[in-house]
Amino acid sequence: MPIDCDLHPPTPRLADLLPHMDAHWRETLVSRGVDELISNYEPPGAPISARPGVARDVAGFLAAALDPLGTTAAILNPLLPVAMLHSEDMAAAYARAANDWIAARWLDADPRLRASILVAPQSPALAADEILRCAEDRRFVQVLLPALLDVPLGRRSLWPIYAAAERAGLPVGVHAGSAYLHAPGPIGWGSYVVEDHANMAGGFATQLTSLVAEGVFQRFPDLTVVLLESGVTWLPAHLWRLSKFWRGLRMEVPWLDESPQALVRRRLKVSLAPMDAPDVATFLHVIEQLDGAEMLLFSSDYPHWNDDRAPVPEGLPAELLRKMREENPRATYRRLAEVPA
Amino acid sequence: MNVQQTPVKETAAASRMAIADGDIHPSARSLNVLAPFLERRWIEHIQTFGTGPRHGFFTGPAYPKSQPGADRRDATPPEGGRAGSSLSFMQAQHLDANNIAFGILNPLAPSGQGFRNLELGTAMTRAVNDWQVACWTAPDSRLRASIVVPYEDAEASAAEIRRRAGDANFAQVLLLSRTGEPTGRRRYWPIFDAAIEAGLPVGIHAFGYGGHPITGSGWPSYYLEEMAGHAQASQAGLASLIFEGVFARHPALKLVLIESGFAWLPSFAWRLDRLWARMRAEVPHVKEPPSETIRRQVWVTTQPMEEPSDPAHLAEVIDWIGWDRLIFATDYPHWDYDDPAHAMPLPLDAATRQRFFRENARTVWGF
């Protein structure tokens, strides 16, 4: 009964969202000629963004995304880049409309579908309100943030988001992408989109460092963090490094009372796609280094076109596959208990 | 990490294998040490206006270190002054005690690298290069200097490299990892061109202040995060050098990544290969999978060694990188120094031990 933890519906256009906005935004977004919200991280025509011929209609999309894998439940992660907007109010209006759109257009259309709550982190207070508003609909199973914002994810200014997620019993999913409020890499603006994608693994690593160092996992003991489309194979080396520096520098973060490696293994989940090892055998070595069989969540990442491998890589042991596709998602997303096994 | 080390007896050191150290940090006891090499006006300028890094603190680093000067507490010379400021004490505590046959000097602050005032940076780097020869490599032939350059001014950097070309006191050109723009951008190309002309490798040492937060998501709170983040900063520099085509332009370029860790390299290379395969249309000038470039043209120093709980995992990672690509380094005299007697947890056969502790360094730096 496979569960797909990262599926991307076509990003809603303004025309999709306007019916879910109030009169002020309906009028001003149109009269100002506001452009479609599209991120430079995923230029629509770039080969990495989408495989050719993706249907925009729900039935056609789901026929291609779910049916070939026999997916029984899939979590939709809409990648509308609301975090890029500089106006807190406009960003919150977009997020709210996107959540109502995904419920009406997608969740109502197929009982296999679940979704993440898109929030605008510009105002953590408004984001917390939106989390609690949407969480009443039990088909929302996660809070969704882009990987790179204006402050590191562990900073206390963002804690209202984690408090609301924990209160609603929802994991926080962090998906590849940037608000582009800083250069997308640590040494400035590169020349190419491919560099932004190369540096995204490092972006996830620094965010994991921040969440760990700031004590988010101690402050919110029921919170699970999920990394989506982050890659997996950078994790062991990063945790060795981080744990070594913790041993030398823990006087700086006294609340961090256990090794980051042990903490992360318990509290972090990570999606499979794109599988970032050259082959399955190497991938399995890395999972062993990570002791990460309980951390992996199956994801197709459809319709992103990361490589030409099958979404379920050949050669993965059946036991690991079962954990990734069933046990781990159900342990991560408690609301999936409402999906028949 | 911050080992309280007592110098071992000379007889014990002599029976140990002679090794190379890819990362030793000499420091100037005070600004006046540079006076013979730096015009008075610049010394007064620094005393009055500071060195002008791309952060706000007139004295000290952006993130307070864990130890004064990030130094080993037992590395303060008996005659006083900063750790790393006394050649005789460095010889006794490190070079002799650990049987270091060849050591690469990488002067850090204040060296003029990354200064906002480019004219000051040019004068300062030139002075630091003169000082390295006069006070370190001339009196101790085990030591080789790095040419520090004011890398935000590539033409001035190239001129400094040409000035030192052919001088056997210098083993490499040194950059810091946190350049103001990604390190492969064209504004830095004259530096790589000049290094190739001079037949020198380019070392990129972690640290520096380029003005950008060390995360793509703003400034972290802690020194711990900055330290961990140097791996990601080095990754960004490597990605830039590859995708801008610097390695394709210079197939003879030898690049050494210093003090940014190494266990991340296999995963990063796999990621670059996958992205390159999918996004070649954007970077048609990159003709081969990045992992092949890395395997041929990139080396990494070992300190701070990653320490997985199962050493077999370390062996796997080094197998993936290649045992010919790792260069042992201690980072003397800093707090996170790796002791050559304890840093490598794996049993190595004699040939591998020689490569790891000495011969790979010789391949790159040619001593």
Q: Secondary structure elements and their pairing?
A:
The complex is a heterodimer of chains A (341) and B (367).
Chain A (H helix, E strand, L loop, with lengths): L2 E5 L6 H4 L5 H9 L26 H8 L7 E4 L11 H20 L5 E6 L5 H12 L4 E9 L10 H10 L3 E7 L14 H21 L2 H4 L5 E4 L6 H15 L10 H8 E4 L8 H11 L5 E2 L20 H15 L9
Helix pairs in contact in A: 4-5, 5-6
Chain B lengths: L9 H6 L3 E6 L15 H10 L37 H9 L4 E6 L12 H20 L5 E6 L5 H11 L5 E7 L12 H10 L3 E4 L17 H21 L2 H4 L5 E4 L6 H15 L10 H8 E4 L9 H11 L4 E2 L22 H16 L2
Parallel strand pairs in B: 1-2, 2-3, 3-4, 4-5, 5-6, 6-7, 7-8
Helix pairs in contact in B: 5-6
Record field, number of beta strands of chain B: 8
Order of helices and strands of chain B: HEHHEHEHEHEHHEHHEHEH
The secondary-structure element order of chain A is EHHHEHEHEHEHHEHHEHEH
By CATH, the superfamily of chain A comes out as Metal-dependent hydrolases
CATH architecture of chain B, by name, is Alpha-Beta Barrel
Could you explain the architecture of this structure?
The complex is a heterodimer of chains A (341) and B (367). Chain A contains twelve helices and eight strands. Chain A has helices at residues 14-17, 23-31, 58-65, 88-107, 124-135, 159-168, 193-213, 216-219, 235-249, 260-267, 280-290, 318-332; strands at residues 3-7, 73-76, 113-118, 140-148, 172-178, 225-228, 268-271, 296-297. Helix content of chain A is 40%, strand content 12%. Chain A is globular, with a radius of gyration of 19 Å. An eight-stranded parallel sheet of chain A has the order 1-2-3-4-5-6-7-8. Chain A has one domain (3-336): TIM Barrel. Chain A is an alpha/beta fold and 341 residues long. In chain A, helix 4 packs parallel to helix 5 (124-135) and helix 5 runs parallel beside helix 6 (159-168). By secondary structure, chain B is α/β, with parallel strands linked by helices. Chain B has a single domain (18-365), classed as TIM Barrel. In chain B, strands 1-2-3-4-5-6-7-8 form an eight-stranded parallel sheet, sandwiched between helices. In chain B, strand 3, helix 5 (154-164) and strand 4 form a beta-alpha-beta unit. The longest helix of chain B is centred in the middle third of the chain and has 21 residues, at 223-243. The two termini of chain B are 29 Å apart. Chains A and B meet through helix 7, helix 9 and helix 11 of A and helix 7, helix 9 and helix 11 of B.
